[in-house]
Amino acid sequence: MTLNDDSFTHWKNREEIAESMIPMIGKLHRERDVTILLHSRSLVNKSVVSILKTHRFARQIAGEELSVTETLPFLEALTTLDLGPSQIDIGILAENHRADDRGLSVLDFTAEAVAGATGGNKIDRREPRDVVLYGFGRIGRLVARLLIEKTGSGNGLRLRAIVVRGGGEQDLIKRASLLRRDSVHGQFQGTITVDEANGTIVANGNEIKVIYADSPAEIDYTAYGVNHAILIDNTGKWRDREGLSQHLRPGIDKVVLTAPGKGDVPNIVHGVNHDTIKPDEQILSCASCTTNAIVPPLKAMNDEYGVERGHVETVHSFTNDQNLLDNYHKADRRGRSAPLNMVITETGAASAVAKALPELKAPITGSSIRVPVPDVSIAILSLRLGRETTREEVLDHLRDVSLTSPLRRQIDFTTAPDAVSMDFIGSRHASIVDAGATKVDGDNAILYLWYDNEFGYSCQVVRVVQHVSGVEYPTYPATSV
Predict the structure, then answer these.
(1) Catalytic site residue 289?
(2) Under 8 Å between Cβ of 342 and 370
């Protein structure tokens, strides 16, 4: 047998193992509300190749590939346990077991690591929580995709309605088509049908009512069977408490804004300050995509080294707020053609840091350049640290944060030497540390942080909604805070 034959045989064996994992992962998710993760990446509804690629991802982070032969025994062990709703990371289970010197079997070690989700410790399965989208633009449609994807067993978030202004003939069909096909993010993973008679879009079995209204004051959501819902405002038309309070109509309990909030509206970055949300808070903001991109790495660096001051320069993809061709715009420079120019503009991300990370006392300044790409941006974070360090130490710290810390869903890490912006379309992390571009000199550090300003941000929004709705289940093995 040749070397190539050996490699091919090894690949086919791993394919077979990955195939055997799919029904176990699906059954745990549907029947017990258990989401199987691998280094914070969900394996639910993934293909054989996707499962293998996710395992291989560990190679660029930890230096060696994590094999399905290592994780399969832990997945099999989980199927034998009396599990309740939870998220379980079999990658961390496998690595922790490898480092454990007590000689425990896989089953005993797994049972101990997930004890908080078994037997008498199980939490109850949550009742479905209604969600309404107000606005159906770039972020609205991506949030819709995520909500439909996460319906799972039917006990989580359930997208019930979308509110838009009437757009004329075949409006419903055109909106469904925009959900079905996206020039940047590709095809919707599933099936979509339109019921024009009832004014609904049916996506993967989820019946979504499309409500036409010119203002929140026109709507009684209970008339559509919507109750105790969380409304996500994707329009950005109202950003203060008074304006957003208009959404608190019959059927709506809470309002989440997908733009920076003004005044006393809490600005929430999941993973950093979501645990500060008061149970009775009805209105909150998910801040901006750039704030979500820079605050988690800022926290990681401040916790380890201290940050004395910083500056963030964002090189940001163009957005619908800009003009396709030169035309009047109320803001300076944004009236110039977005696909033809680099456009210097402002960013509120730096000033928003104080709201999301009040323990960071360092002054942070910021500016932005819009560039002719449709998605994925990069934040260049220049920091004066509280102590001197080395590039190797900073990279080791951020690598560990991306793998095992409570920020592992927010911070990703890449060592790819030829990484470019298109490589990060569809990233579910708030930001991705580019190891090759990182610079450290004494107490000065410059981090290059990629972020999918559409999809990664939408993932952060959904995480906040899951948290406030009570369907954000605990993750095991637990990580230290």
Answers:
(1) yes
(2) yes
